[in-house]
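Lecture notes, unit on binding sites. The following record was shown on slide 14. It pairs a sequence with coenzyme A.
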Amino acid sequence: MIIFSGNTKEGKPYVIRNLEAGDTEAMMRYINKLSLEQTYILRQGEQSTYEEEKKFVDDQLKQMKDGKALYLVIESENCIIGATQINLKEKVHSHVGHLGISLALSYRDQGLGAKLLGVVIERSKIELPSMKIIDLSVFAINDRAKHLYEKFGFKEFGRLPKGVFYKGEYVDHIYMHRDVIMSST
Ligand SMILES: CC(C)(COP(=O)(O)OP(=O)(O)OC[C@H]1O[C@@H](n2cnc3c(N)ncnc32)[C@H](O)[C@@H]1OP(=O)(O)O)[C@@H](O)C(=O)NCCC(=O)NCCS
């Protein structure tokens, strides 16, 4: 289902929509390229096979069907150019959703991350009504992502010193949270 349609700064049309069963191949291409870039994400070059990606997509679709996840992709020119997801935690943590977001390199720094983040948070109020809190983690050196999260009301609640080993250096891992419905005060 298409949730938002827009144009990039260069005028290329894009849509933000739910992940679908037919996305495996495009998701595999997207995530494997992102991994090779060795940006500020978990994967640092590791590649997924089609079977692994299919298992991942099927699992996310099942979680979405069960009301435990929201997985959105941003698509332009028949390619997935970004993704964001919120996965609800389990048992006593089931009111907490963990958020992740990424965009393909050439689509960064033109406001698409902010658009995607705004859309996933708004959409989660409908699709994940039991969720009260969103949390996330970010490498301490990822100033752009930290800025974006703060702009959306996320606040740091802790950090694991040297919790990430990134490109041969230990860097802090920051944890952030916000309420889904933010009070105006
Ligand atoms: C993080 C990410 C999703 C943000 O999306 P984006 O489209 O590039 O971000 P936007 O253009 O919407 O917004 C970026 C904001 O950060 C600001 N910014 C850019 N570089 C910055 C820097 N080095 N330090 C501080 N702020 C910075 C921009 O000015 C903009 O803020 P503004 O709108 O207030 O001016 C995207 O860059 C990305 O996928 N990066 C690689 C993967 C990643 O880091 N994922 C997050 C893991 S926690």
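Take-home: The mean pLDDT is 97.
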